[in-house]
Structures are given as structure tokens and as C-alpha cells.
Amino acid sequence: MFRPCSKLLLALVFCAAIARGTGTAQNCGVPGTPPCSGALKTTAPPVLRGFSPVQAAQGSTVMVTFTGANFASPAGAQFTPSAGITVLSTIVVNASLIQAQVAVDANAPLGARNVLLIVGNAKLPAQNTFTVVPGPGTVRQPGLMQILRVVPNQVPAGSQGVELTLQGTNFVPGTQVSFSVGAGVATDVFVTGAARYVNSTEMHVIVNVLPSALPGGRDVNLQTPNQKTITGKGMLNVLAAPAAGKKTGPPPAVKIAPLALQTFFKGIIRLDAPEWGDHWAGEFQNHYGMPLLDDDVLFRWHEQNPGLADYYELRIYARDGTTLLVKKRIDGATANLFGHPVTLLPTYFRPDAAFLAGLLSKVPKPPPFGFLYQSAAFKKPVVVNGKLQKPSSPTGPQLSDGDMQWEVAGFHTYNKNGVAKQSNASDTQNKSDETDLEVEISERWPLGAPLAPTGLACPEGGTGAGLQVTDVADKTVYDTKGKPTSGIDPNNYIGDPWVLSGNFNLSRSPYAAHPNLHQAPGSKCDG
């Protein structure tokens, strides 16, 4: 993964406009200098290739960098819709770089914005969007309760003891269910007993329908214990009662719209670890810094509406927020609970060595400076260089400061006819009749990429940067009678004890270190 002997080369490129025929460099076409003349006139239109970062938190100020070609003054940036976003300044750094300082209000609406860069008279729309995400410590309000469907959605007049399944989002225990023809109109569909709460997406009720009930739609009304109400208009259809003495056919088939015609509102997944940034806990502020991706990191999350997902997908993106580096499907295990199979879905993932190797091979090596990094154990802050004990900015690290970004999505398996897959369905069911839909998504959190441990240089002599490996086995040569001689064995053998001494730094190693430090006489241990 890392080559300790590799060297980092930095190239500095300087550009100058050379006046034709004079052999001297001159500055032209930039603010404060004379215009270019003759063959040096530039007529190529400006081109926008992209910008970064692609998102910012509420209450933050970020420097948005636009890259392209043929940039010139004047320049400006626009965000649409612009509510909660203010462009403080726009600077043309050079012909290929423009920087705009953007302030995001603490109450700015969340979501994506279209970005337009204006260079002179040219308007250059960006291909991707700029997204406002919740600020650190922001608590989202619980989502509104919603009824998506009633199964079955048809009952004949005169029916007794019919069990109805309500499917939706954000259901809470203790919710009362009732049916009505309309506002202020007496009902002819009665709920017997209390509604049975299964989880935040499913409830069951048993209803009786009067024989005199007229055919037509009935509204479904839900009222929570804190008196919040929601109504599903016309979601239950009452059919005419069969004529006396007339043989009735099979019960009417449930009519459900095909899955492609249904609208789904995504739920929310809350990320729990590894934590990052600055967070207030009462009167104390915790500086988590930038979490480091190593083999000790543990990803943890939880659903706002438990039980919504059949499986999760962990996704890790590059710094730009658009390049997907790797994704990992996380399935559950089946357990037997009171004679019924139950799927236990984990809400955590610990990467193994193969996962880390495949991921880190796609991540550019980060510069060994600039931000406060911290290992997954969170025992104490680890600083990349110097003795910095504070975040890298007054507001702490930002999402764009990370080398990678991660999120978690939840998927639910449906039959293509719109019915949720049943837990007792046969294993031989045709998989082509099923499809997986993304039903919930998390926000994104940053990660820091590891570096090779410092001090582990390996020139021919076997040592470097103050690091020394010494074989401390007994090298005395003994005669056939076991008596020591004056000879010294120059060879090293398997099983020889070794001593590693010197200075090395494992703070950003991809291998989490939990050493037991022993201080040898005359040495100094620190860490």
C-alpha cells in the first residue's frame, strides 16, 4: 500500500507571457497591467471545468474554488435559489482559477443549489450542484407521519372483523385510527379495539362495516398521543353489499398501483461514529478533529424510523464528493424468536484489511500537514505536525477538509407489483419479480486518509531517520564442548530477539497501534 522509500516531488510551474520579437517577459491582460497587443491577444472563451467544495454546513463560511480556462476579470458567482447564501467576494487568481468566499446562514434552507459562474459577459453553469447540509450539532425535527397505503383497500358493506394493514412513515405507539366519509359526516366503518403498532412503518386495525354503508371512499384518520393528526383521503373503498341469496364470488383483489407509479419519501439515517468536528456538550466543547481511516475504525449509525431497511449500503466518496470509491452491502442474520424467523440487521461495520487495501489504493496520498487528525479510539488528539492542540480553523474542520466522505443508505425489497416482500415468502420465488429501492439516506461525514509511518525509511544499511533494528541474540561461538570462544557469529537466524529503537510516528498509520511500552534503561518513551 505504501512505499516507504518513495520521495515526494513538488513541481512549481511559472507562466509568463513572452512578447513576440522582444525576447522579454511581460505581464498583460490582468488587473493593473496594460492590455496585450498584437499576437498576444486572447480570444478563446472562458471554460468552467468544476468547483469545490460541493457542499457546506449551515452557519459556515467556505472558499469555493472554480477551475477552468481563459478566466479574466470581472467575475462573479451566483447560487440558485440564493436564500441563505451570500457571496462575500470573488477573486480571479489566474486564468485557470477563481475563488469565491461564500457565507451560509445558520438557518439557510437545506438542499442543493444550482451554481452559475459569470466571467465577463459569459455565463458558465456548473455541471454539479452546491448542497447546504446541517451544521454540527443541528438536530433535525422528526419527520411528519404519513399514510402510504391500506391493505386491503376494499371491503364490502356488512363485513365483520376485517384486518387492515396501514403502511407509512413515522408511526408512533398509541396512535388512534378512525374512518370517515368526510369532515363532520358520521362514519359507517368502525374500528374494534385498539390499533396494533408494529413499527414506525406499519400498524394493524380490525374494522366492522355497517350493512347499510354506501359504496365509496373513506378517509383514514390518525391521531397521535400528543394530539397530532393526519388524514389519508379516500384510501379505503367500501363496496356494495351482495344481494340477499346471491352467491358471491371470490373476495375482490387488492388494487395497488405498480411500483413505478408510486411516490416514496426517503427516511433519514443518523450517523453516530466515527465522530468529527467540534461539538458542544453542555458547557464543554469536544474537539473530535478529523477521524482517521484505519483498521480500528468502526462505522456506526441508526435509523430515524427503525425497521425501514432490509439491508444497508455503506458508500465512501473521494474528496470531491462525487467520485464513488467503494461501496459495501451490509446484510442481516436470521434468528428464531418465539418460533418465527426475525432478521437482525447490524447498524455498524468494521473494515477488514482487504477492504482498506482496496479503498486506499484509490485515494491520493494526502499532504502530511494542515489538519488535526484523531485515531478511531479517540483517546487523545493526534497532531500531524508540530504541537497543534486546536482545530485548524475557528469553527473546526469542515466536510471539505476530509480526504474522503462517507454515507449510509437503506434499501427495502419490493415486489414489482407494489407489494412489500413478505418475510415468509418462499425462497424459490422468482427474483426477477423483485426490486430494491433506496428508502432512506444519511448525510455525509468526512474521513482522513492514512499515511505511511514516518521514520521507516529503508536504505541499504537497514536504518534511516534515526530508526535502528538490532539483533540482540547471543552471537558468541562455542566449541564442541560448549565452551565460549573468541569468535563472533555474524549471521542472523529465525527466532533471534530484536530491538527496535529510534523515533517513528504511527499517528496516521493505516494500522491502529495499541502498544505496551517498556522503557529500557537510558531510553525515553513518549506516547
State the low-pLDDT regions, or none: 1-27, 36-42, 368-394, 455-464
The total count of strands amounts to 38
Roughly what percent helix?
A: under 10%
Structural class: mainly beta
| Spatial shape | flat
What would you report as the Rg, rounded to the nearest angstrom? 33 Å
Figure out the total of helices.
Answer: 1
Query: Major sheet: size, sense and barrel closure?
Result: 8 strands, mixed
| Percent of residues in beta strands | 35-45%
The domain tally reads 4
Main traits of this protein?
disordered N terminus; 38 strands; mainly beta; 41% strand; flat; Immunoglobulin-like; 1 helix; 4 domains; 527 residues; 2% helix; five-stranded mixed sheet; eight-stranded mixed sheet
Task: Provide the fold topology.
Elements lengths: L16 E2 L6 E2 L20 E6 L2 E3 L3 E9 L5 E6 L4 E10 L2 E8 L6 E9 L2 E4 L4 E4 L12 E6 L2 E3 L5 E8 L6 E5 L8 E3 L4 E4 L2 E8 L6 E8 L5 E11 L27 E7 L3 E5 L2 E8 L7 E5 L7 E8 L5 E7 L2 E5 L2 E5 L3 E2 L3 H8 L11 E3 L7 E2 L20 E12 L18 E9 L2 E3 L20 E4 L4 E3 L5 E5 L9 E4 L26
Parallel strand pairs: 4-11, 13-20, 21-33, 23-30
Antiparallel strand pairs: 1-2, 3-5, 5-8, 6-9, 7-8, 9-10, 9-11, 12-14, 14-18, 15-19, 16-18, 17-18, 19-20, 21-24, 22-23, 24-29, 25-26, 25-32, 27-28, 30-31, 32-33, 32-34, 35-38, 36-37
Walk me through what this model shows.
The protein folds into four domains: 49-133, Immunoglobulins (Immunoglobulin-like, Sandwich); 146-242, Sandwich (Immunoglobulin-like), CATH 2.60.40; 267-447, no CATH class; 468-501, no CATH class. The radius of gyration is 33 Å and the shape is flat. The protein has one helix spanning 353-360; strands spanning 17-18, 25-26, 47-52, 55-57, 61-69, 75-80, 85-94, 97-104, 111-119, 122-125, 130-133, 146-151, 154-156, 162-169, 176-180, 189-191, 196-199, 202-209, 216-223, 229-239, 267-273, 277-281, 284-291, 299-303, 311-318, 324-330, 333-337, 340-344, 348-349, 372-374, 382-383, 404-415, 434-442, 445-447, 468-471, 476-478, 484-488, 498-501. With 527 residues, it is an all-beta fold. Strands 21, 24, 25, 26, 29, 32, 33 and 34 form an eight-stranded mixed sheet that branches. The model is unreliable at 1-27, 36-42, 368-394 and 455-464 (pLDDT under 50).
